[in-house]
Amino acid sequence: MKNIIFKFSISLMLLCFFCNCDSFVEIDLPPGQLNTPSVFEDRTTANAAMADLYAKLRDSGLITGNGTGLSNLMGNYTDELIYYGSATTGIPPFYNNTLTANNGTVASFWNDSYNQIYSANAIIQGVAASVSLRQPDKDQLTGEALFVRALIHFYLVNLYGAVPYITTTDYEINRHAGRLATELVYQSIITDLVQAQNLIEEDYVVAERIRPNKGAAIALLARVYLYHGDWAEASNTASVVLNDSQYGLESNANMVFLKGSTSTIWQFKPMAEGVNTAEGGNFVFTSGPPPFVALREDLVNAFEAGDHRRISWIGTVSDGSTTWYFANKYKEQTNTGSSVEYSIVLRLSEQFLIRAEARARQGELSGAKDDLNVVRHAAGLGDTPAVSQQEIIDAILRERRVELFTEYGHRFFDLKRSNALDTTLSTVKTGWNTTDALLPVPETELLLNPNLAPQNTGY
Amino acid sequence: MKNLSFNKGRPSCLCIFIFAMLLSNQIYSSELTFGSYVKQSQQQITGTVTDVAGPLPSVTVIVKGTTTSAVTDEKGNFSITASSTDILVFTFIGYTTQEIIVGRQTSIKVILSEDSTQLQEVTINAGYYSVKEKERTGSISRITSKDIETQPVTNMLATMQGRMAGVSITQNSGVPGGGFDIQIRGQNSLRSDANRPLFIIDGVPYASETTGFYLTAGAQPTTTSPLNSINPSDIESIEVLKDADATAIYGSRGANGVVLITTKKGKAGKTTFNVTTMNGTGRVTRFMDLMNTEQYLAMRNEAFVNDGIQPGPSDYDVNGTWDSNKYTDWQKELTGGTVQINDVKYSISGGSAKTQFLISGDFHKETSVFPGEFRYKKGGVHVNLNHTSDDEKFRAQFSGGYTVQDNLQPGTDLSAVSKRLAPNAPSLYTPDGNLNWENSTWENPLSLLESKTKGRTGDLLANVLFSYQILPELTVKSSFGFTDLRHEESRTMPSSMYDPAYEAGSEYSILYLNTTSRRSWIVEPQVEWSKSWNKSRTSVLAGVTFQQLNGRQLVQEGDGFASNALIYNLASAYVVDIRNDSEQDYRYQAFFGRANYNYDDRYIVNLTGRRDGSSRFGPGKQFAYFGAVGAAWLFTNEKLFKEHSTFLSFGKLRASYGTSGSDQIGDYQFMDTYTSSGNNYNGISGLQPTRLFNPDFGWESNTKVEVALETGFLKDRIFLTTGWYSNRSSNQLVGIPLPGTTGFSSIQANLDATVENQGIELTLRTVNFHTEEFDWTTSFNISASRNKLLSFPDLEGSTYQNQYVIGRALNIRKVYHYTGLDPASGLYTFQDVNGDGSLSAPEDKQTVLDLNPKYFGGLQNQISYKGVQLNFLFQFVKQDNYNATYLGGMPGIMSNQPITVLNHWQHPGDTSGYQLYSSGVNGAAVEAFSKYYDSDATITDASYIRLKNVSLSYTIPEKWLSGLKCRVFVEGQNLLTITHYNGADPEFRSPGFLPPLKIFTAGLQFTL
């Protein structure tokens, strides 16, 4: 009997021992994660947070070269591209100008963009709270994050009209964010870019111009001033870039989109060595009919005779009876031994055209013509025959069409800011409506945040 | 450091524990003969026990009032020592117990009759304890191997469909290896992915979270479910715990119910060898009625006329490029194949009264309805060993199983494309047998099959249970469980998928590779005490749980290969990218107990409780208490009834109340971290913010109430159980949806919302005939439930405002109200709720539709006549669902349509049918269609009655085969569907994917 009681109490004691191990349920950080504050205490990890943002911009959202980015979709939306792909992808609503508020691509434009903005804000906040990061590193990272934040908001405001300008990671604030008037969004973009150009180094922090330097911030600021109608600022700001000896126009059109081009201001490094651009994969095709998209013939015909860009940047495929054209700026469809082309986000020729237009709008006609002619000469063309202010402005817009086609929606934005969307597109696009100047705010967003109401008209 | 030292300590204290138990066993076995004293007139009695069909093995023979017992062997023989005044009691589950006075007999022949009315004596597994059916206080549904074995299915959830009240099961895909959704008594959590029940196999929790990844999901609508590993033929019984009384002992994990799976055990007696072989076929149950070429082309041409334009350069179907006289039934062509099913099972079992064993194995193979060499293979072994010491005080039980699955399926399910493809699209092959690309004018659907998904899973599950009876009333026991799952899944996208005209070489080929492993252990030491005195019986159980689960998932992408022949070799890829590398550490600790008191088999009270701690919560939020009380009153055991009621043979009123919880939120959610994103930029691997950070969330709690009446009439030949339950989930732990402007789509937090699930469940079992030769039993169950959002403070100001309505179900859709065709324009019109002249969300999306089933259930009949057995089950569901128009896209675009779309607007004044056709350029038509898609017109009645399962078997009389038992059987699944639904399959909720198949098999079973 004693024996039994002894064993019984041992068993009970053992049970009680088990009951006292509350710390058993405390776990360590998983191996793939770091505590947020520690990320910004170290230069390497802070740079890794920044690198992730560039990789996301390259692979998703608005300025990716993938088929889901502006270059392809807004090319379809306007008069640059003809769509040949499947009827059940997300592209026909863009091509037919029949977007609806529940369109998935419109929603991912929005969500990817604000996710990228969150990352930028998280870097700005994390760096500010850091105690051990050196000041030059802090400045550079903050400046780059501000630059990215401004860049994305710039595209959003031009696509959706009034949009929330997000400057914090606090979801309690952001979940109720209302739409800020277009004018105020522009003010915020300008503020961010001015601050960014003061913080970012003049020299590129890494080789190959794959992270924005001060020049990139200034170049974007020049574009923002132009879109905003600040002609003098646009002209002066573009001049800063144009006077920078780092940059020069390539006289050979075949060189412009190579990774080592001197006219490049900022470009994306591909995800791995040997990989080239997504644009090359999307636009280039080798036999007809085209698998995905082809250039419209009227774009091809918009080039003047003798324009080197017509030969270098437009590819031709024929099956004997029909001829198709494709954007051949980026020529590599697939991987090469080492990468030869990177996706270029900011190029010098745009800066010439910005200053040309800003000058023309202010009446500085000869200066305007000079800048326009620099771009024309690089393409093997002679001086512009335009004389009057309106002729010069028209010539610049025409030049922009052939210089910047299938790049990040330039065509759409240029038509929009020159109030030419309806006159130009209603003749070539059956589905075009005046209200198509703005994309719909994603319906899910309107449902989740009533402060985003009202929906853009027409949706 | 604290963790570390504890980890060191644990194994050693476990050893002590086991050792203590083993030690005590040895001492006691030496005192063995102490208990049995010898009577004078003892003699050896031998005999045979049989039933109508032949000898009955494993029948227990007990000398009444003593512990002397014996078990019949394979031939039904037994031998036992008894005196002439003794009474022998013969018991066997499912048979009427017989008592025979020994008298002067030395050889006794007993014929037991099958007693389908005696289920009240069956012992039910309630997890940590077991309880007699008649004495249970909780709500537990059960099916046994009898029901499971007659179904030619490979997923254990499929075997439960239609057979259990309150358990709603839907199949996600007809492609083998696909998942099932299971919901026990409705949706408790606003989190759509947090309504899974807890699965326990032989006492070991089985993680049912997906092992797949979206990049490798391939032809499945959902990522891979590990539940496919569980082998239905290894299962002896499945018990589903539903109410508080049954689930509270599982505490935090019991909120959504518990599914207990008990595997087969060895049986004493002669070694039995059993082989079953089965072959069969499977086909798609129903196709959609789609337009033929003539109808389709008429639609397309009309669309262009309506749009006022000519067909464009890429409208190959109508611009003269494709043959306008060609017709192909693409559904038949692409998904109309016949699945070949082969299945072999074997088992060997036997042993002595003290030690029994079972070894079983199985192999299953099935092909695919898609063209090509696709197949699913599954095989496994299962072992069970039981041992009882001579003094019956020490018991050990081991069960272990290993299952291997090998699945090769297309990378894309062709069901969607088979419904959309123009009926005059070109031939699949050129005359010389190559894939036909028709001059690059189409994407040949067979090219999609070049992309393949491969899945290989190995799943080990083992558990040991030791128990030792220290005192007659006191038993200590401990279970030790271990699981190890390894899953490798790949999806290829070789360049051969693409039109050769594009000259895409293998540098375009892509491989996605997912390797997931998951390993867990559990230890649950317990003490059980039971005592009877006078009319009272009590049992008390206390125990602790330690559980740890470690998981790892590595997803890699390889881009560009030197050759497509090397596509499965990651080292041959030009670029390798890590898409996901995540580890998981889940720890769980609990203290649980149960106290049960039974007075005179009339009044029973059952108390259960649990203190739970989970690593999924942040410091200070890890622990919580759960508990329940259940009670039953067996009123037919009252004197009054016993004496006066002959009609009412059994009556029990039971009720329970209690709480349970849920921690289904994933791991590490309370931490503020950056994660490696796998994005490479300039050689730097990116770090991204993991989530929006909230450390303060805690347990979700669920309160359950149930009242049920169980009544048996005419010696239980009619048995009716009627139950009412009401479950309330509050402090909802959810990912609160956030607008995109926050950078994320949700944040983890507790929400002060309450969800109620109320319902009635009715189970009726009638024994229609019960004679020696003819038996006919009918079982019917029906469940009606109502899901309701009871309260949601500040719903109007929350992001849920347009998703939920207070007083309505969670699974609702707020949609436009369709008001018919505009006779002038031919466009769909909708109700402008706020009358502002335009249709917009959310103001005009105010019609609420409930997609929950209104009621569901099953009707099963089991008929046997001599050696012939016929079982069949009708399953029925009353529900609304998205109809056929949901999938096709706007009528008029280059996509085929259901034949019903022919009824459409053609002339001003037409008011019925579908809107005017458009090729996609008519903005107003696209807009109207997109709203139609989002309106109450696309959600219609999808109720159905389905002949879910039929099985017919014949046991060849043994005398014909000289001792060899042989059973011949045919089985069918999803044979007949009665429905008004105009889509493909009403049971099914994943449009665009392959619905469940109609399966027909035949087989043979030999027993030696």
Notes on the structure:
Chain B: Keywords: Cell outer membrane, Membrane, Receptor, Signal, TonB box, Transmembrane, Transmembrane beta strand, Transport. The complex is a heterodimer of chains A (459) and B (1008). Chain A has a domain at 38-274 and 348-421: Serine Threonine Protein Phosphatase 5, Tetratricopeptide repeat. The mean pLDDT of chain A is 92. The relative contact order of chain A is 0.12. Chain A has a two-stranded antiparallel ribbon. With 459 residues, chain A is mainly alpha-helical. Chain A is globular, with a radius of gyration of 26 Å. Chain A has helices spanning 2-19, 36-39, 43-59, 70-77, 92-95, 104-129, 135-160, 171-174, 182-199, 214-228, 231-242, 278-283, 297-301, 308-312, 348-362, 365-378, 389-403, 410-417, 421-428, 443-448; strands at residues 33-35, 81-83, 264-268, 293-295, 314-318, 323-327, 343-347. Among the domains of chain B are: 1-32; 123-263, TonB-dependent receptor, plug domain (Ferric Hydroxamate Uptake Protein, Chain A, domain 1, Beta Complex), CATH 2.170.130. Helices cover 8% and strands 47% of the residues of chain B. In chain B, a hairpin with an 8-residue loop joins strand 47 and strand 48 (965-979). Chain B has a 22-stranded antiparallel β-barrel. In chain B, strands 11-16-17-14-15 form a five-stranded mixed β-sheet. Chain B is built from nine helices and 49 strands. At the A-B interface, helix 1, strand 1, helix 3, helix 6 and helix 20 of A face helix 1, strand 26, strand 27, strand 31 and strand 32 of B. Strand 1 of chain A pairs antiparallel with strand 31 of chain B.
- Strand elements of chain A, count: 7
How would you name the oligomeric state of the polypeptide chains in this document? Answer: heterodimer
What structural class do helix, strand and pairing data of chain A support? mainly alpha
CATH fold-level label of the domain at 38-274 and 348-421 in chain A: Serine Threonine Protein Phosphatase 5, Tetratricopeptide repeat
Strand content of chain B: over 45%
Low-confidence stretches of chain B: 1-40
